[in-house]
Amino acid sequence: MKNALITGVTGMVGSHLADYLLEHTDWNVSGMCRWNDDLDNIEHLMPTINNQDRMRLLYGDLNDLVSLLDVVEKAKPDYVFHLAAQSYPKTSFESPIETLQTNIVGTANLLESIKKTGVTPIIHVCASSEVFGRVSKEHLPIHEEVPFHPASPYAISKVGTDLIGRFYAQAYDMKIMTTRMFTHTGPRRGDVFAESTFAKQIAMIEEGLIEPVIKVGNLDSLRTWSDVRDAVKAYYMLVTCNPEAGSYYNIGGTFSCSVGAMLEYLIGKSTVENIKIEIDPDRLRPIDADLQVPDTTKFEKHTGWKPEIPFEKTMLDLLDYWRNKVKSGKKFLTR
């Protein structure tokens, strides 16, 4: 039986990947998290975790090499999915050092721990489409060789993540692939991201908890949307479909629209009429990556993967996720 290690298992993507692996493989899954992480996203897996029934949690921190050595020694992974990161671009402007430390040095720490422990897993290092940053229209759709032009400390950190992954593959003969996943969302998306905070605000408006006004940032940015459940299937196929050390891929959906059009779709699904929109200066980035449309030909040809879940289902599932959370009676920040 194979062993998989997921860093960042408590995040949106990590939790959905754990779901996918438990359902579609017979692998044992070790999920790495910090001792004080919020476990809400994996609450439904607690019986499995408590019973040590193919899944367990291991405590580690990307900024603590000793803890990573311990995690790798215990997990003995055949596959590693490195998803843990400081993942919010706007926060990176306020905490650039933490972002660079966690995402660049933390990735190096993880790969060093794997190298020193002597295990030889197939490794997925997750970068981001944000590495491409402010792309000119003549470079659309964005293929793998479009030059990097990062537009935030987060994006810079993911350039480092991408390059470190490829370096370790070449220098130390490690089977590492890196991905630049474009916008992906769905249930469990953190409320600091645009579509998720919009869905949360709509859910709170429907329950009468806030006034019928949605606070927004930049609505003009163009995004290609994909579903997190399609994303984790892509990650599984990445490591199981003839993985090639040092390879790198753009992955993403096929439906593109502006952030504003996405918001209008969500508002159209609300039970409340005449919801207003208000620009909140605190939600604007100093620089924004405003054209994010991928060319995924390389990855699709290599693996046969294609996105299957339509934009409409993704957004409705996200909205229903927040409706359920708000109705549970929990208290939320109005961010």
Structure description:
Helix 6 links the parallel strand 5 and strand 6. The longest helix is centred in the N-terminal third of the chain and has 22 residues, at 96-117. Helix 5 (96-117) packs parallel to helix 6 (153-172) and helix 7 packs parallel to helix 9 (259-268). The protein has two domains: 3-185 and 226-251, Rossmann fold (3-Layer(aba) Sandwich), CATH 3.40.50; 194-223 and 255-290 and 309-327, UDP-galactose 4-epimerase, domain 1 (Alpha-Beta Complex), CATH 3.90.25.10. It has eleven helices and 13 strands. The strands form three sheets. Strands 3-2-1-4-5-6-10 form a seven-stranded parallel sheet, sandwiched between helices. Strands 7, 9, 11 and 13 form a four-stranded mixed sheet that branches. The protein is α/β, with parallel strands linked by helices and 335 residues long.
**Elements, N to C (H/E):** EHEHEHEHHEHEEHEEHEEHEEHH
- Strand element count: 13
Nearest-angstrom radius of gyration? 19 Å
The CATH topology of the largest domain? Rossmann fold
CATH architecture of the largest domain: 3-Layer(aba) Sandwich
In helices, the fraction of residues equals 40-55%
The major sheet is characterized as: 7 strands, parallel
Q: Which structural class matches the secondary elements?
A: alpha/beta
Query: Which ranges are low-confidence, i.e. pLDDT below 50, for 5 or more consecutive residues?
Result: none
* CATH superfamily descriptor of the largest domain: NAD(P)-binding Rossmann-like Domain
Shape: globular
